[in-house]
Amino acid sequence: MQDDNTRHREKMQRIKAARDRMIATKTGEKGLIIVHTGKGKGKSSSAFGMVMRCIAHGMPCAVVQFIKGNWLTGEAELLRTRFAEECRLVISGEGFTWETQDRDRDIAAARRGWEAAKGFIRDPEIRFVLLDEINIALRYDYLDIDEVVAFLLEEKPPMTHVVLTGRNAKPELIEAADLVTEMTLVKHPFRDGIKAQPGVEF
Amino acid sequence: MQDDNTRHREKMQRIKAARDRMIATKTGEKGLIIVHTGKGKGKSSSAFGMVMRCIAHGMPCAVVQFIKGNWLTGEAELLRTRFAEECRLVISGEGFTWETQDRDRDIAAARRGWEAAKGFIRDPEIRFVLLDEINIALRYDYLDIDEVVAFLLEEKPPMTHVVLTGRNAKPELIEAADLVTEMTLVKHPFRDGIKAQPGVEF
To answer: Which InterPro entries does the entry mention (chains A, B) (predicted)?
Structure first.
């Protein structure tokens, strides 16, 4: 048992030394363009988790919800009631496109959201901006992908992080991003007749 | 333009009707076994996002951190300072195994965490339990996968949700789970020499 533990310690010392050498080469700091996409769960909730981290670190942040406007999601409610000082919140969307059934209104809402987003990103006080479900607005061409990517690359202050979420991220955005995660659905209880539930889904 | 909008509305009405029919078949409620795995980012932060949702909905919850014990992560700090009443927090782990370099101590820490986890899961007041990075403890056999799966399937109250995170989820756990998401790494700024940064990584 002691021998096992000694071997384990030696192996772990080697791993730690290799990791420390690797980490020592990572010295840069940079405001990142981050994309969460894919059909799996966790795209928005992990971005909200990052907002909570920023709040914990005293980093002012901002959220624009592009699509889920008429859902009173738990996160938006929490930001509004408990963290109004730490995090700005704009809800531009009025629901999914099959709920509003009005393309002109959806386009107008997306553009309002994008104007708010640009203001937050340009604001030197704000260090982290979440553009929740903006990929849906981009996918339907409610917003112009080239305009969004050009703004991020040219006008985003160097130390500001911007997170863009939603399925079907456009290739231009993936190309411009620093950090891209795809959430992949492995198993989902919908197929067993389980409905969306508070805490888990909203 | 008006014609475009009319066609759009008709198409969206059909999509909405199909969705409404699908959703109407999903009437069940059930406490879920949820797994976040894969090499990508967002496994822990989306689980913390769900904890925040539960807090927003007034659902009492609990978190056991199995591995990141000596990291003062933003989330743990926020739970401790702002949500101590809404969410119980136990930190059993003392860091990654290559940090502690002591297998016996890692095993003891994992077992302490699992005892706390069982208490939270059995507690009828608690509706949502996050076992953060438990997959690491399972992978190194610090905890017995059969014992963990049997407990979840046999002793978890029917309406309690349990979320288990970490890379390399064991097949037995995936088999037992209701909802499994794999976070897939598409692009990471580490390769460009960017270090872990507050808000984004911790």
So the answer is: CblAdoTrfase_CobA (IPR003724), Co_AT_N_dom (IPR025826), P-loop_NTPase (IPR027417)
